[in-house]
Amino acid sequence: MSLLFPHIEPNNHGFLKVDAIHEIYYEESGNPDGKPVIFIHGGPGGGTYPANRSFWNPEDYRIILFDQRGCGKSKPHACLENNTTWHLIEDIEKIREHLSIEKWQVFGGSWGSTLSLTYAIKFPERVSELVLRGIFMLRPQELKWFYQEGASHIFPDAWVAYENNIPEEERGDYISAYYKRLTGDDESTKLASAKAWSIWEGSTSRLITDQNLIDKTADGHFALSFARIECHYFINKGFFDSETWILDNINEVKGIPVTIVQGRYDVVCPVRSAWDLSKALPEAELKIVEDAGHSAAEEGIIAELVAATEKYKS
Ligand code: STX
Predict the structure, then answer these.
(1) Does 196 share its domain with 282?
(2) Could you read off the pLDDT of 21-73 as tens digits, one per residue?
(3) Residue 173 among the catalytic residues
(4) Is residue 4 part of a domain?
């Protein structure tokens, strides 16, 4: 049984030209006079899907989705130029102004939580609430856990393909080794590396491995933007000027209601980060779902996310 609201089609969609290179896809669904919410997708590099519209009652909410630079329907695909956290923050403001929205709910999981928190730190007056899932703050220990050593001990079977894509002498720093291949001139190496990187994440995102998610992450078009953009952000440490930038600046969001939904067995973004965030934000509500992993598609996670959007709807 799905606890999501029924599938809906957008009432409006378009492309916003944000600079000389990038055009950003955005769409609006639900009630045009409802409470505005913006959905911030993961990765970075993941893109949005129609099911992402269904975390809110469409009678109550004006639901806005957009594909971050280089992802989904945004153009040019997988482009790393002019593509940093700070460009994405500016794009969110451009979409808000374009749609004449004063203030909105900001909803994001995984990298979507990183970007949601960063936006709220920069523009707290624009955020009515934060609904966050699978907390990721892009700290060195979080990257090391998933891309170097840690998650590899829980999924050694899935790790083999990620590891084998890189020659032994370069395995001391997988992010650098992948970056070289994902940004190099050899198209077949680039595609093979993108798939290996992306499938690793697809194989580890659900409590119970889901072949549909693995197939999605194995798709060449998806993998190229997902892997290239993720690796570009990670080698650049999220373009933050300190390793703990979000926690260092968390005081800026202290007036905003925050709900954090976190799977206990999230192997991509372990619960430690949600815990650290909730300690820094004592007013935030932390919901640990005992039988879930990282994905927003897991039942217990959906139930808590929908409970939060229902609570915040009026
Ligand atoms: N990246 C985490 C993230 O945002 C570190 C993310 N994790 N899994 C996904 O996105 C997919 C479900 C798109 C594979």
Answers:
(1) no
(2) 999 999 999 999 999 999 999 999 999 999 999 999 999 999 999 999 999 99
(3) no
(4) no
**12 CA distance to ligand 1 centroid (A)?**
27
Q: Which atom of ligand 1 sits closest to the CA of residue 110?
A: 4
- Choosing from 214, 238, 262, the residue where a domain stops is 238
Report the number of distinct structural domains present in the chain: 2
For the question of residue 225 being annotated catalytic, the response is no
90 and 130 in a common domain? yes
> Does a structural domain hold residue 125?
yes
Confidence band (pLDDT; 50, 70, 90) for 314? confident
The yes-or-no answer on residue 266 being catalytic is yes
Question: In this model, does residue 1 exceed pLDDT 70?
Answer: no
Looking at the fold, whether 99 and 162 belong to one and the same domain comes out as no
Give residues (CB < 6 A) around ligand 1: 42-43, 46, 110-111, 136, 201-202, 205, 217, 268, 294-295
Considering the candidates 110, 113, 152, 273, report the single residue annotated as catalytic.
110
Residue range 215-251, pLDDT digits in tens? 999 999 999 999 999 999 999 999 999 999 999 999 9
Nearest protein Cα to ligand 1, atom 14: 202
Tokens 């403001």 locate to 93
What percentage of the chain exceeds 70 in pLDDT?
100
In which domain, by residue range, is 247 found?
A: 12-137+240-312
Look at ligand 1, atom 7, and give the residue with the nearest C-alpha: 43
Which residue among the candidates 266, 273, 278, 295 is catalytic per the annotation? 266
Query: Residue 314 C-alpha to ligand 1 middle, in angstroms?
Result: 30
Same structural domain for residues 234 and 245? no
